[in-house]
Amino acid sequence: MNVTIGLEVHVQLLTKSKLFCNCGTNYRDSEPNTHTCPVCLGLPGSLPVLNKKAIEYGTMAGLALNCDIANEMQFHRKNYFYPDLPKGFQITQYDRPLGQNGEIRLDQDKKIRIKRIHLEEDPGRLVHPPSARYSLIDYNRSGVPLLEIVTKPDMDSPQEARSFLKKIRETLEFLDIFDGSLDGAMRCDANISLEGGGRAEVKNISSYKGAEKALSYEITRQKNLLRRGKEVKRETRHFDESQEITRSMREKEQEHDYRYFPEPDLPLIQLTEEKINSIKEKLPELPEEKRKRFLDQYEITKDQAKSLTTSKTLANFFEEISQQVNPKKTATWVTDSLMGELNYRDQSLSESNMNKQKFIYILEKLRDGDITEKGATKIIRHILDEGGHPKEIIKQKDFKAIKSQNLDQIIHKILEKNSEAVEDYIKGKEEAINYLVGQVMSETKGKAKPADTRKKLQKILEGYDG
Ligand SMILES: [Zn+2]
Questions:
Q1: Which residues fall inside 5 Å of ion ligand 1, going by CB?
Q2: How far is CA 141 from the centre of its chain?
Q3: What is d(CA 235, CA 226) in angstroms, rounded to the nearest whole number?
Q4: What is the Å distance from ligand 1's center to 48 Cα?
Q5: Cα angle: 320, vertex 322, 325; to 5 degrees
Q6: Helices (H), 323-449
Q7: Which of 90, 211, 315, 442 gives 20 to 30 Å between its CA and that of 83?
Q8: Which domain holds residue 88?
Q9: How far is CA 297 from the centre of its chain?
Q10: Separation of 38 CA from ligand 1 center, angstroms?
Q11: Residue 194 has what DSSP assignment?
Q12: 39 with 89, same domain?
């Protein structure tokens, strides 16, 4: 059965103040209802004043998503009742949105068309205290600028929806207009239908994982209905994140239920071609361009270039270190070792204990032969788990590589102990040397370099032969 998925993604733009008032948007660590004023509380007689920065950020996003940017846009009132919306309507854009007809390509080169993007205000937030028989409302979020990105129904699996959301996050973060690590900064609704069935809208999805789970659940639910010859109703469903299921909320509203009409308190917004072009010129390098440049400039592999450009933090981390240490080595250690270790711990680079100075120190010590690769990995793990500077860790934990002279002594000791393997080797059983290398490695607790050890062993054993 063919699956069709379209997404409506809401992202909070990183403006300092709200969309129509002067209240700050950094509300997350504040007491409820402390970032409010008559405008965002929807008090009668208050008037909205548009935040220009939100238009600029929205335009940047639109350009990065290859949309046609409107020269004239208009805000509308979308009327509905809900406690988190004190005015009784949400100011949003309707038939004259900021951008239309965009597209974005996923890593597998699949094209996802973007129908439109528009600006609107975030509603407040309902808080449900555990086991209480009431709900609380926090209006700190009310009026924070949201960019809504609506796709065409171009995705055909939950995995693809997840890749799309990741791509959106990556792109907007490169523009510095969005921070996906903030709680609730990206939310989405999904429209999903199976061949021969009605379309359900799933609301309340707040993470990539959530999107994948909600959609997988919906596909199974709709498949089962269709198999039994039952109807899949056109309805709105709510995703219950804790139970990973979707529940029926209500029959889907029709557009006319909202009684859209032009917002009389805001003028038509004009955006000249000149202005759009000047924003275009200021756009920073996007992931795709950066990937191509990394490939050309640093002679790293395609996979490395792709991994290193998944976030701006990571790309800058790599690039700044590459100015001091060999770029190829840096790329290998960042992608193979550091990213793996971060992933294993479910940490992001910016929230981890690793920084550029520490990483450069480790790579330099490695280059100079003062520590082994195994030692470097252990140091990286130690920093991620417990913090500290590699200089101190090398001292405390004795991660120093064995010096050549000491290694000679250890090798001789191992050879004396393992005369049988030595004889085998001399008789022509070349694989006996692997056993001896292993013995040296275990004796030195991994602080000897395997390649050096093998070379030394070969040399000494040749002497035995003669
Ligand atoms: Zn306000």
A1: 21, 23, 37, 39-40
A2: 23
A3: 16
A4: 9
A5: 125
A6: 327-332, 339-345, 356-367, 373-386, 390-397, 404-417, 419-426, 432-443
A7: 211
A8: 3-278
A9: 25
A10: 6
A11: E
A12: yes
Determine the Cα–Cα distance for residues 184 and 204; give it in Å rounded to an integer: 10
Same domain, 362 and 325: yes
Please list the residues that pair with 90 across neighbouring strands.
Answer: 78
Q: Rounded to an integer, what distance in angstroms lies between the CA atom of residue 77 and that of residue 94? A: 9
Same domain, 425 and 311: no
CA distances from 395 to 188, 299, 333, 337, 388 (A): 50, 35, 22, 22, 12
Cα(14) to ligand 1 centroid in Å equals 16
Distance 276 CA to ligand 1 centre (A): 28
List the one residue out of 328, 338, 324 whose CA is nearest residue 305. Answer: 328
3-state secondary structure of 76: strand
Cα distances from 170 to residues 320, 366, 375, in angstroms, run 20, 32, 33
pLDDT tens by residue, 292-306:
999 999 999 999 999
Q: What length is written for the chain?
A: 466
Residues 224 and 345 in one domain: no
List, in order, residues 6 or more apart from 307 with CB less than 8 Å away: 314, 335, 339
Q: Last residue of a domain, which of 251, 278, 305?
A: 278
d(C-alpha 173, C-alpha 284), whole Å: 11
- Contact present, 415 and 460 (Cβ < 8 Å): yes
Residue type, 425: Y
Question: Tens digits of per-residue pLDDT, 295-342?
Answer: 999 999 999 999 999 888 899 999 999 999 999 999 999 999 999 999
CA 80 to ligand 1 centroid distance, Å: 20
| Domain end (from 375, 397, 419) | 397
Closest CA to 169 of 143, 140, 141, 149: 149
300 and 255, same structural domain? no
Residue 229 is inside which H or E element, if any? Answer: none
| Tokens linked to 296 | 């050309």
pLDDT at 146: 98
- DSSP letter string over 387-422? ---HHHHHHHHT-BPPPHHHHHHHHHHHHHHTHHHH
Residue 202 contacts residue 8 (beta carbons within 8 Å)? no
